[in-house]
């Protein structure tokens, strides 16, 4: 007698954010839904090894180390003097248990069946489930959602041992806290863990083969973050390609680089990528193929694969690989699977990086805006300039907004610093509702808050608009306003400007503009303050020119960006 297959309307493989939302949505349509999960408990990477654990660890470290109070009480301040691995793990288990309970309840409430075991396609409509007790369960369905997520990439040249050389799943079972940690790969995960461990005053080294971190970030944000890490003593080595990592006879880690160097480490975290968990899924039996990194390609709107009744969602389809976006993908996939209307998500979603400090971004980066040739202006507010920032003792962190000069619409928001992942949602709302600069300038914000930084950054932009420039103090007059290229403001000094004064002024405002070559300024000298963010620079320069000593020799000044990139502020 042929084996009997139990029949469902929808089988979802994987119970992470994508699988969970697909299953619940299917059940809400009145369908019989089965979720197959090979892990010990439901929840996926988000609950067990990724999002929730790493964020819980972060919160524990920030609390026990007294990190948030160090702005006031100094770098040596600690809430708990000796922090060990059990201290870090205790909170983790409580949080995870709670998350799993919520999930199990959600499945039960919606009548979603779950089974523990590894699923494998037998053909395009049938799967076998390898149960824990060694039995095989056979199930069939008219529709499938593949939501198997990813597993850490484990190349053969890294000798993982789960004790001293770990991947990003193993770090959560940390046997002890190392004195030194080397992170291979400045990925989101690598940077999150590197900065969390650095907050524990552990010496951290990051090895990154390329010459930059997180290419999708606004460069100014990335530069600030790198500066912050280095300021805390984190060693960040770019262009460093790892040839091998192993442990020696004294259990010390040895890392060989491709340029022939040998680096020692107490512990190594390999965080250079993840691959789709498709290798044992029997994709070939259902007519699908994964790419070299185990990912399945889908239609970007419906999440349908090349096999019409099979959908895929979440990390297994690639970027952006976030829990937040995976949930939406799962929901939309289930809607399309049953031919139900699926409201598409708005164009812009936020990206949160829970490093220390946090980073969050929504919309276009300055580099993207520039590439597209959109005339734009940026405004920046530093958290230390807000009252809330003073109260909290914040010395770092900023919020940057980008607006179109033609439509005044918000184009992007980029935040690094305390609360970035929460603050970003204000920007996200305005962006998706197609709001303009006026929203921030005209609205009242709670005071004191970090959210006020939005208003300050917007005012920074507003004050650079032509009518605002007309109010510049005497001493410097704007000579090319609306007609000027939007990325720079040219002015002429009408007072006499000493090189030294201008230099010291520029040094004092080094986060705004800096002087590359200055001898002196005389009346009529052309001053160029570029490129974006010129409003703040203009105001400061104008103020400086008013208080200049009379004596100065004739020369010229060139104001150039303070940072390595080509922008001044
Ligand atoms: C360290 C770390 C930190 C992260 N931090 C964040 C963050 O702060 N914010 C954020 O939005 N995202 C974060 N992410 C990403 C987030 O975890 C993922 O985007 C999300 O989990 C993807 O969801 P998913 O449903 O696609 O797959 P997953 O959550 O990976 O779930 C897939 C599930 O499928 C199961 N499975 C696999 N193969 C089979 C099979 N053959 N049969 C049965 N079951 C199978 C797995 O056991 C797993 O439970 C982080 C990830 C990591 C690793």
Please explain how this structure is put together:
The protein has 569 residues and is an alpha/beta fold. The protein has 4 domains: 6-152 and 275-337, 3-Layer(bba) Sandwich (FAD/NAD(P)-binding domain), CATH 3.50.50; 165-272, FAD/NAD(P)-binding domain, CATH 3.50.50.60; 357-462, Enolase-like, domain 1; 489-566, no CATH class. It contains 17 helices and 28 strands. The strands form 8 sheets. The protein has a 5-stranded mixed barrel with strand order 1-2-3-4-5. Strands 7-14-8-9-10 form a 5-stranded parallel β-sheet, covered by helices on one side. Strand 3 and strand 4 (126-131) form a beta hairpin. Helix 3 runs antiparallel to helix 5. The chain is globular.
List keywords for this structure.
alpha/beta, 4 domains, five-stranded parallel sheet, FAD/NAD(P)-binding domain, Enolase-like, domain 1, single chain, 28 strands, binds flavin-adenine dinucleotide, globular
Largest sheet: 5 strands, mixed, barrel
Q: Which secondary-structure class do the elements indicate?
A: alpha/beta
Kindly report the spatial arrangement of strands forming the biggest sheet. Answer: 1-2-3-4-5
Give the N-to-C terminal Cα separation. Answer: 77 Å
Number of helical segments with 4 or more residues: 17
Q: Globular, elongated, flat, extended or rod-shaped: what is the shape?
A: globular
The level of helicity is: 25-40%
What is the count of structural domains? 4
Mean pLDDT: 84
CATH top-level class of the largest domain: Alpha Beta
Instruction: Count all strands and give the number.
Output: 28
CATH topology of the largest domain: FAD/NAD(P)-binding domain
Under CATH, the homologous superfamily of the largest domain reads: FAD/NAD(P)-binding domain
Please identify, by name, the CATH architecture of the largest domain.
3-Layer(bba) Sandwich
Bound molecules: flavin-adenine dinucleotide
